[in-house]
């Protein structure tokens, strides 16, 4: 099941499971949106890694400010793998919802139905061996550090309520060192590396053409 577009005999509902990783701010979300746009309507379900951050709502505000979102230990990979296994069996799942403002899981969940293509997207998904082993296609979206930092600044100020100084401090303390230690090395596990993030239309076209081959074979 690990070979590129391998035989799907082991998969009861003939599902293609794609992992899309890469550093924070590299353009993963843009790549995912372009893939979805190129495929048949209602044929893709997206599972964001961020939904599986461990609940830290019980921590104080000071403790939450020190939370390292870029370390593999911050993700509940066991639950993520369990949910993917359920989807492969044809079962729906109740995907968690996570708030960056409170660092807590919300009471609400999102119902996800099994689809022909499941995309798991997040900075750390290729760091986990048990997750890698069930991915049919592993993708690493690459981008220049300066470009990633600019996107991180914009995102964290607009979506996560951080000041400009707080974003830079967080980047220096957590994002950059964790990227070098955990995320960048996972590029070697990728079947496809897409440089320049979502701007690389050729790379995205190559990936989507491979995905479309799966639909042709159904």
Label this structure with key terms.
single chain; 218 residues; alpha/beta; Rossmann fold; 5-stranded parallel β-sheet; two-stranded antiparallel sheet
Nutshell version of this structure?
The chain has a single domain (16-206), classed as P-loop containing nucleotide triphosphate hydrolases (Rossmann fold, 3-Layer(aba) Sandwich).
Classify the oligomer: single chain
By DSSP (H or I, 4+ residues per run), the number of helices equals: 7
Rounded to an integer in angstroms, the radius of gyration calculated over CA atoms is 17 Å
- Structural class, please? alpha/beta
CATH superfamily membership: P-loop containing nucleotide triphosphate hydrolases
Contiguous low-pLDDT stretches (5 residues minimum) are 1-11
Overall mean pLDDT score?
90
- Could you say what the CATH topology is called? Rossmann fold
E-strand count: 7
Detailed description of the structure:
By secondary structure, the chain is an alpha/beta fold. The protein has one domain: Rossmann fold. The protein has 7 helices and 7 strands.
How are the elements arranged and paired?
Elements: E1 16-21, H1 28-38, E2 44-48, H2 61-65, H3 77-88, E3 93-99, E4 104-112, E5 117-121, H4 129-132, E6 137-141, H5 145-159, H6 164-183, E7 192-194, H7 201-216
Parallel strand pairs: 1-5, 1-6, 2-5, 6-7
Antiparallel strand pairs: 3-4
């Amino acid at each position: 099941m690990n070979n590129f577009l391998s035989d799907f005999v082991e998969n009861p509902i003939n599902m293609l499971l794609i992992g899309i990783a890469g550093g924070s701010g590299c353009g993963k979300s843009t790549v995912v949106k372009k893939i979805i746009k190129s495929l048949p309507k209602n044929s893709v379900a997206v599972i964001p890694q961020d939904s599986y951050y461990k609940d830290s709502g019980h921590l104080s505000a000071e403790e939450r400010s020190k939370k390292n979102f870029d370390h593999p230990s911050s993700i509940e990979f066991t639950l993520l793998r369990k949910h993917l296994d359920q989807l492969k069996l044809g079962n729906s799942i109740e995907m968690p919802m996570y708030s960056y403002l409170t660092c807590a899981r919300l009471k609400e969940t999102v119902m996800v139905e099994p689809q022909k293509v499941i995309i798991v997207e997040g900075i750390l998904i290729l760091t986990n061996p048990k997750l890698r082993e069930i991915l049919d296609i592993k993708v690493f979206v690459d981008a220049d550090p300066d470009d990633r930092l600019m996107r991180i600044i914009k995102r964290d100020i607009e979506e996560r309520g951080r000041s400009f100084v707080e974003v830079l401090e967080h980047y220096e303390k957590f994002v950059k060192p964790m990227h070098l230690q955990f995320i960048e090395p996972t590029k070697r596990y990728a079947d496809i590396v897409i440089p320049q993030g979502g701007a690389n239309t050729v790379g995205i076209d190559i990936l989507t053409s491979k995905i479309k081959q799966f639909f042709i074979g159904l």
